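Quick one: YhgE/Pip domain-containing protein from Candidatus Corynebacterium faecigallinarum, structure tokens please.
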Amino acid sequence: MIVIGLMITPALYAWLNIAAFWDPYSNTGEIGVAVVNEDEGGDSELTGPIDVGAQVVSQLKENDQLGWQFMDAEEADDALRKGDVYGSITVPSTFTDDILSMFEGTYSPPTLVYQVNEKTSAISPKITDQGATTLDATISSVVKERIAEAVTTELSNSGGDLEDRLANAQSGAANAFDETADTMASASASLTRIQERLDQAQPTVESTQRALRSVDGALDEANTALTQVQSIMTGVQAQIDNFSEAATTAYLESTGALAEGTSAARGAISAVTGELERAGTGIDSALRDASAFTRQSDRAIAQLERLLGGAALGNGVAGPLQDALDDLRSQNDANSDLINSLTGLQSDASGALDAVSEASDALAAATDDSRDSAGGLQSATSDALPQLQAAISRVNATAGNFAGALKSTQTMLGEANSLLDGVSDQLEGTGEVISNFAEEVDGIESGLETAKADILALNAASEGGLLDTVTSLDSDGVSRFVASPATVESNAVYPVATYGSGMAALFTNLSLWIAAFMLMVIFRVEVDKKGVRRLTVGQAYRGRLALLAVLGVGQGLVVSIGNLLLGVQTENVFAFVATTVFAGLSYLSIMYALVAALGHVGRIIAVMLAFLQIPGASGIYPIEMTPAFFQAIYPLLPFTYGIDALREVIGGFYGDHYWRAMGTLLFMALAALLIGSLLRRWMSNVNVQVNKELESTGLIVSERVEVVGTSYRLTDVIYALRDREAFREEMDHRWKPLRENYDRLLRVSVIVGVAGVVVLGIIARFTSSQKALVFGIVCLWMLLVVAFILMLEYAKQSFARAHELSELPESELQSAVVGAGVGGTSVIQDDPDDPDDSEDRADSADETKGGQA
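--- reply ---
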């Protein structure tokens, strides 16, 4: 019974939804829309009395597209607010007058008041909007129809009067046409003469322009000459200014230099004179002292000679003394000669001092003469240069004025030339206009003759009955044509008969996803290996998937055959059933890979994928109408290709679209099969720890995960066998930070996860255009937080296993070495705590003993 329930229950989702949405738009006549007509009608010369509101009500009573309910304004407002009707349309009292105002020159746009209760349903406002649009089109049709009818009737009634008027105007029209033709011929001749005079005036204008261009060239040359004169005068004036400035500068510099030189020379002369005077005074004093010393030396030498002559000394003593006195005498004589020379030098110095004094006086006189001469030159320059500059300035001003006058003259010549160009253009334009006008006159003359013939022919046609076409116009037919001049012919490509058939692709795929999920919930994913020895992970994975695939085929058959019995459209019954079964097996492969590898976390991911695929696989709305987030994940979703494949089967095949969709589903199924079998082995220990934590809550039941090999790492087991104490110390050191911070990290991860969801929720609240993207980020954020918590828990359990390993007896450590080595062969190991595994081991041991016996 459980298997039968698994076959039928998922299919009920598809069947009920397909039946409920089989043809909802055929029941739009049950959607209530209140119509309030307050129009008071109107009148115009063109349409006569008209009440557009009443005509609209009359037509709506015959329209069953919506449930039109006619009531007054108060009743309509009450019914709309209570939800008895989904919308209301009010025709204002001045509606007809506003329409007719366009014929009176005071157009006031007519307005319908449309209200909708959007609370009652998400789809009904869209349907009532279409009803309001239909009503607007109906009103436009009514107005056009009445106007066309009035115009056609007026034209038909005036057909008889037109025939009488044509007969009365025939004779007068012929004479009038003849007179007008003569007038046109005279006008044509006058235009020809005017054209000839214009042609004669054109050469005169051209010769005048050539003369003006010659004068303009002469003025250019004169202007160039004046410019050169001004340039020369400017240069001369600049030279005079430079000369005046240089002369003044030279005068000032020479005067200053002369004053400075004179002052320096006189100062030097004064210094020299003072030094000479001081030197003379010193020399006089020195000469006096030297002369006195020389005289004293003479007297002393004479006295010594007298003493030496009077003394009775021997030759040995007297001789040296006499020699010394002779030397003193010679030195004293030399000093006397030097004093005489110094006396002569003093006389020469006195003469030089007098000469320097005379030179100083002469220099002062020369300086005064030079200053007087320079002052005279400066005065002459100051008087002559301003007069010369004033004359040059007058010449320059005169040249400038003359140049300005020439420029003004050139400007006037340019304006005259432009004016003549304009005159020439005007003459040409006038000639063209007159020529064209002459042609028009000729055409009018010809047209008059044609019109005369047409009028006579029209009268004859009236007599022959051709005006009966106007007088017999069908006003009803014309008015209907004007109201609706064109019709739209709709042709469906790959037609789908009912809305239910169109939605069957989505509901069937969703039913298949639910079916696969129910198998993951009700059936064990892990294989019961009781009685099976050395079962590998690959064998267990493929075996359980094969069992579930058999049930999946049954679910696909039930869903597809039930859809066909409901009347779902299909191009090929076999293809419809086969596609449904294949899509169900593909979804089963994907979901089984998730659950086998990740356990309960995989089931959560499967549910989240269902949430994402409903809006993101283009099941209801075109993917282009969905937010950018869903457009981005659209190619990655299995539903995308399952829905496309079923749509091909339902609506019709095109090219290789069907096979591409089926091929993509096959690729996803095979990829899930391969990745799931690998992750099943690698993630087994993680699933074991997660299941233990879930079971510890006492609220969730988890199946036992079959582990490949022992739960201990081979390197850890060998390390513990070699040095248990060192292994224990290293494990304690390695896992101490995690052991001390585990609770804190767990709390922080939960708080950060919740805070991230809250922040993203606030962002989504104030970001109207990116809600889908924020939703996707929330899903990814939650998966990351769950992954982090799983990693944290796995690390904790790894430490627990390492600690447990360090406490095992020697014999169990050796057994663990064997288990870890066997684990490398992907064989599912026995659980020591499982009674069934203990029984299998005992049976195996008995068999081994029996064989040995």
